[in-house]
Structures are given as C-alpha cells and as structure tokens.
Amino acid sequence: MRDYKDFLAEVLIEPEALQKRVAELGALISHDYRDSDALVLICILRGGVLFLSDLIRHITVPHAVEFMAVSSYGSGKRESTGQVRITLDLNMNIHDKDVILVEDIIDSGRTLASVLDLLSARKPRSLCVCTLLDKSERREVYVPLRYVGFTIPNKFVFGYGLDLDELYRNLPFVGVVDEDRYREG
Ligand code: PRP
Ligand code: MN
Ligand code: MG
C-alpha cells in the first residue's frame, strides 16, 4: 500500500479546522431546524459518510439518517449527460419531511442537480443541501447550496471521505494530490 505522503502536495484543510467548521455547521443546522419534527439527513454514498457522521454529533434536533447511492449513466461518467440512476434508494418515504442532503464535495454540480430533481419529485416539506466542500470554479449547472463548509480552489483533493481511486477516504484532513508523483507510483 502506498503511503499518501509520497504524493501529498499540501494539506489544504487541517483536521482541527475541519472539525471546527463541522461543529459550526451542526450548530447552524440545529438552530435553523429547532422547530422541525421531521428532519432527515440524507448522505449520498460514499464520499459524504465521514462528514455526515461527524456532523450529526453536533445536531441537537432529533433527526433520521438515510443513505442513497447513485451512478452516472453511460461510459462518459457524469460529464456526458449528467443524469444519474439510483443504485441504492432510501428506506424512508420523505414526503413531508425536512430533508438535508449531505455531500462531501460539489464539483460540476451534476450529481447533486440530478439527485435534487429525483428527491423533489417525492414532495418533501423542504429540501436543501449541506456540503463540506464547494469547488465553485468547476460548476457547470447551478445548484442551490444552503450550507457550505469551505469553498476551495480547483485542485485535486482527497481525504476525509474523498477518495483517490477508492482509497484514502479515512484521512482526517483534506489534502491536495501531487498528480505527477501520484502517477509515477
Ligand atoms: C464525488 C463526490 C460527489 C460528486 C461531485 O462522488 O462525492 O458526490 O463526485 O461531482 P459533481 O458535482 O461533478 O457531480 P463520486 O462520484 O466520486 O463517488 P464517491 O462519493 O463514491 O467517491
Ligand atoms: Mn460522492
Ligand atoms: Mg469518488
């Protein structure tokens, strides 16, 4: 197994800064939804799982947690049509629920735009997005983001839920990949 230090260009967000911001978002959500009796957080697998699990420790309003998984149509990945197919659906009926979609990163916005379409058709009471990272320079389709942890530059990032060829999601920081060194290995 390669050591990530061999291709880590820089630590973009240190563990302490991440945890501080996650706590702030949790407090904000707790305040905004203090009167809700129907709060549901939905994590889109897999990138959002670390963020979700840390975030809910700071949410003081009773809430349910749900997971869904999607995959892009076609071989051109999400860059082709941007349409996604649900590969793992929710267990819960979200009709009349206050739904917060939890994501690790918004890049082109296509995954999220598609998921928002699918979920809004189920008539939740409210629906919004909480993302840890917003790579806003890369946006191709508009997506409304209610809670954003950090707006980041257009760099190849990994760690804290974000994978590098499916690995390194467990790292407690968000790092930037040195792509030359990564490919050399
Ligand atoms: C990543 C990330 C977002 C999506 C953002 O997921 O977690 O879900 O891409 O890209 P977009 O804004 O351009 O649609 P990925 O498809 O890599 O799956 P993963 O979460 O399982 O790593
Ligand atoms: Mn993802
Ligand atoms: Mg990924």
UniProtKB/TrEMBL annotation:
Main localization (coarse): cytoplasm
Matching InterPro entries: HGPRT, Hxn_phspho_trans, PRTase-like, PRTase_dom
Domain of life: Bacteria
Cofactor(s) the protein requires to work: Mg(2+)
Reaction equation(s) it catalyzes: GMP + diphosphate = guanine + 5-phospho-alpha-D-ribose 1-diphosphate; IMP + diphosphate = hypoxanthine + 5-phospho-alpha-D-ribose 1-diphosphate
All residue ranges annotated as the Phosphoribosyltransferase domain in the record: 21-163
NCBIfam families: HGPRTase (TIGR01203)
One of the Pfam families matching this protein, by short name: Pribosyltran
Family, per entry: Belongs to the purine/pyrimidine phosphoribosyltransferase family.
Lineage: Bacteria, Bacillati, Chloroflexota, Anaerolineae, Anaerolineales
Name this polypeptide is given: Hypoxanthine phosphoribosyltransferase
Biological-process GO terms, alphabetical: GMP salvage; guanine salvage; hypoxanthine metabolic process; IMP salvage; purine ribonucleoside salvage
Keyword entries, A-Z: Cytoplasm, Glycosyltransferase, Magnesium, Metal-binding, Nucleotide-binding, Purine salvage, Transferase
Molecular-function annotations in GO: guanine phosphoribosyltransferase activity; hypoxanthine phosphoribosyltransferase activity; magnesium ion binding; nucleotide binding
Signal sequence region: none
Pathway assigned in UniProt: Purine metabolism; GMP biosynthesis via salvage pathway; GMP from guanine: step 1/1; Purine metabolism; IMP biosynthesis via salvage pathway; IMP from hypoxanthine: step 1/1
GO CC annotations, alphabetized: cytosol
Keyword Zinc-finger (UniProt): no
Enzyme Commission number(s) of this protein: 2.4.2.8
Subcellular location(s) per record: Cytoplasm
Enzyme superclass (EC): transferase
